[in-house]
């Protein structure tokens, strides 16, 4: 059996319990060496064969994995964050389909969640944004024109930009020309959840400058949106007058126990 395992964003204890069990039982691990914390390999048995895919081609990775599976070994393909984002996982799954080798996926904590934790942020706030756009600037991998940062910016939603730390002057230009105000809150989150994590809060117009001043060139996420600073509305769900399936709302509010609904200023 082959299992694709999401390693989590960095910290070695942010892999799931299930993912950790797969590592403990693995005979072969192929890990994405550029971003997976090598400490995770400490969960593997002494006898486990370990390969770093950073130096391998797809063909080489698949040769190791298919030979292992055919020999009845437990094979783990360890990818950073969660397997559903920017991991080149689909081409491996399709290869296995073609070879009729069974596989499954064990999800992980994506770095965009790690970044939210580092920022003490909630990406969806009532009255501010109820959507998160996960995207990237085009690099060697093209981005379809209909998904341009400029186009997405018109929504003023929360945006998390992967794989683009080397292109911040272009990114901030696209964000502003697309519709975000230059003073929209933004952040550069470097190596979220790793011991060397760094968080730099700024505004959209200062993204490139902020990263440059702090020497951040890669392994960072750019988070943009008014959820990072400003006003929002308190939730309906937890409002004393709101009735849900689980709780009956109160008819009147006693002044001393209730904050008025409406805008809350935070930070
Ligand atoms: N599947 C991964 C993303 C892989 S793409 C996930 O779910 O997180 C690699 C990009 O992810 C990096 O260029 C960087 O933009 C981002 N990234 C990965 N780990 C990160 C971390 N701990 N902190 C900040 N950004 C990270």
Q: What's the short story on this structure?
A:
The chain has 267 residues and is an alpha/beta fold. Helices cover 23% and strands 21% of the residues.
CATH class designation of the largest domain: Alpha Beta
CATH architect. name of the largest domain:
2-Layer Sandwich
- What is the SS-derived class? alpha/beta
Number of helices: 7
Radius of gyration: 22 Å
Measured distance between first and last alpha carbons: 49 Å
Describe this structure in words.
The strands form 3 sheets. The chain has a 5-stranded parallel β-sheet with strand order 3-2-4-1-5, with helices on both faces. A 5-stranded mixed β-sheet has the order 6-7-10-8-9, with helices on both faces. Strand 8 and strand 9 (198-203) form a beta hairpin. It has helices at 17-25, 58-70, 90-98, 111-118, 149-153, 168-178, 207-213, and strands at residues 2-6, 28-31, 49-52, 75-79, 103-106, 132-136, 158-162, 185-190, 198-203, 220-224, 230-233, 263-266. Helix content is 23%, strand content 21%. The chain has 2 domains: 2-109, Tetrapyrrole methylase, N-terminal domain (Cobalt-precorrin-4 Transmethylase, domain 1, 3-Layer(aba) Sandwich), CATH 3.40.1010; 112-229, Tetrapyrrole methylase, C-terminal domain (Methyltransferase, Cobalt-precorrin-4 Transmethylase, Domain 2). The protein has 7 helices and 12 strands. By secondary structure, it is α/β, with parallel strands linked by helices. Bound molecules: S-adenosyl-L-homocysteine. S-adenosyl-L-homocysteine binds at residues 9-10, 35, 80-82, 85-87, 110-111, 114-115, 162-163, 189, 191-194, 219-221.
């Amino acid at each position: 059996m082959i299992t694709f395992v999401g390693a989590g964003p960095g910290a070695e204890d942010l892999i799931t319990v299930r993912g950790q069990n797969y590592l403990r039982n693995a005979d072969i691990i192929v890990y994405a060496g550029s971003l997976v914390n090598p400490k995770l390999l400490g969960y593997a048995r002494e006898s486990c064969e370990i390969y770093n895919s950073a130096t391998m081609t797809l063909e080489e990775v698949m040769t190791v994995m298919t030979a292992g599976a055919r020999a009845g070994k437990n094979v783990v393909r360890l990818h950073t964050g969660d397997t559903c984002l920017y991991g080149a996982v689909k081409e491996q799954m399709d290869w296995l389909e073609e070879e009729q080798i069974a596989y499954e996926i064990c999800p992980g904590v994506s770095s965009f969640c790690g970044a939210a934790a580092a920022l003490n942020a909630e990406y969806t706030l009532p009255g501010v944004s109820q959507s998160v756009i996960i995207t990237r600037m085009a690099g060697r991998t093209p981005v379809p024109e209909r998904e341009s940062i400029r186009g997405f910016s018109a929504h003023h939603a929360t945006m998390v930009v992967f794989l683009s730390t080397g292109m911040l002057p272009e990114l901030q230009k696209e964000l502003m020309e697309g519709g975000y105000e230059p003073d929209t809150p933004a952040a550069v989150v470097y190596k979220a959840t790793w011991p060397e994590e760094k968080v730099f809060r700024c505004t959209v117009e200062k993204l490139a400058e902020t990263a440059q001043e702090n020497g951040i060139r890669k392994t960072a996420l750019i988070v943009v949106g008014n959820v990072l600073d400003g006003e929002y509305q308190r939730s309906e769900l937890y409002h004393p007058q709101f009735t849900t399936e689980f709780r009956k709302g109160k008819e009147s509010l006693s002044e001393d126990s209730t904050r008025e609904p409406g805008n809350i200023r935070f930070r």
